[in-house]
Amino acid sequence: MQIIKQLKINFMEKRQIAMILSSVLVLLSITSFFVRGFNLGLDFTGGYLLEVEYPQQAKLDNIRKDLKDNGYKRASVQYFGTNNNTLIRLAPQKDKKGATISDDIMTILKEKDDKVTIRRVEFVGPQVGEDLREQGGLAIIYALGFILLYITIRFEKRFSVGAVLAILHDVIITLGIFSIFGVGFDLTVLAAILAVIGYSLNDTIVVFDRIRENFKITSKSVIDVLNLSINQTLSRTIITSLTTMLVLLALFLLGGAVIHGFALALIIGIVVGTYSSIFIASTSILAMGLKREDLMSKKPKETLES
After folding, report:
1. CATH 3.40.47.10 correct for 11-40+128-296
2. What does the H/E/C string look like for 112-163?
3. Residue 98 above 60 pLDDT?
4. pTM of this prediction?
């Protein structure tokens, strides 16, 4: 289905502006990684999570003050779903066990409102959290390694480097937004990051496949072929991005706090991934000196549907 026809947008003419913008965003993101770090969830840090329900709207500032005054200085308190429900996150306590902590927290809260109830208590050990961080990082590295190998075999080494650069660009900026704004980072967000890698790769491969085929059927310059290929795949990209975005916006707005981070990461990833498949991936192979001869010497391979 093609909803946009006969476009002749000169994307490559804007490549320098795009690269400057991307460089600034990537540098800001990396700087934030070291300066601000991440607001790691219980999955990665270990500790306790308590879901507490109030009969009326909970006053978060009062809850934080009460906990701080009773020795829980680093307690994180936020609404969960509705403003009657709150999530309380606590770092591991060396001198207290889970049952003791939950009883202690409830005693503190009931001093101000005796109708408050506890709905659930969860505990993740610090060693488990550390293992999850390591395994999550390895999952991303393995994914990038296999992608590099696949595209080298499927296309050409310049294409593989361009695809990996685009994916790294998307992952770094998505993580950077979570770091800069202090959005909670847990296992669901990590799963979304892996999904962003897959989405970005799919978009990039569609463009790359059209570039390769256009080199075989036209004698235009490299820049003209890149522009032609991006314009030809633009209709497909817009349809895919918009339909996916509608679902994610519904999850983000209506899915509740549990899935909020997951949906947000994918929304950011789709926007950045669409941008990178147009500018970062294509600009990278142009900068690495891609020539028609590099592809014409390859044996014909089955093309992907776009």
Report:
1. no
2. CCCCCEEEEEEEECHHHHHHHHHHHHHHHHHHHHHHHHHHHHHCCHHHHHHH
3. no
4. 0.78
